[in-house]
Specification:
Largest sheet: 5 strands, antiparallel
Number of domains: 1
Oligomer: single chain
Length: 137
């Protein structure tokens, strides 16, 4: 399937307006898969674990041009073991969407809560290398 420049522009605009709505839906839909993952971990390692996704913060698009855009999210994950000892972590993900040679690529760079700038820099570097490796005709 080939994606035109106009279609990609429409996709970019839709992404901007839909991020907040999508995050709320993800929180509800992820509950069952997280329970299943917890159960699988319990079966594999013999340790009771309860995983959950808490707050998700979607930051505004921080990079965009006619062929790409990037935004970052912070997600808080929670765990409880059999002794009800709570644990939590916050991760950052920078998502970059690239339109190149009629195709759309999705790049995701994950890091810890302090890695926002690193994920953005890494994502930008990937983007540059992919463009360099795929010159337009």
């Amino acid at each position: 399937m080939s994606v035109s420049n106009t279609e990609f522009e429409d996709f970019r605009k839709m992404t901007k307006t839909q991020n907040d709505k999508l995050i709320n839906n993800v929180k509800e839909k992820i509950k069952e898969p997280m329970k299943e993952l917890s159960s699988n971990l319990e079966g594999e390692y013999g340790v009771e674990v309860n995983l959950s996704i808490g707050e998700v913060i979607v930051l505004d698009i921080h990079f965009e041009n006619e062929n790409a855009f990037s935004y970052s999210t912070f997600t808080k994950y929670g765990t409880n073991n059999a002794d009800e000892m709570p644990g939590a972590s916050v991760d950052v993900v920078t998502a970059t969407t690239l339109h190149i040679k009629g195709k759309v690529l999705f790049l995701y760079c994950h890091g810890t809560k302090d890695d926002l700038e690193w994920t953005r820099e890494a994502s930008t570097n990937w983007l540059k290398e992919i463009i360099k490796a795929n010159p337009s005709n």
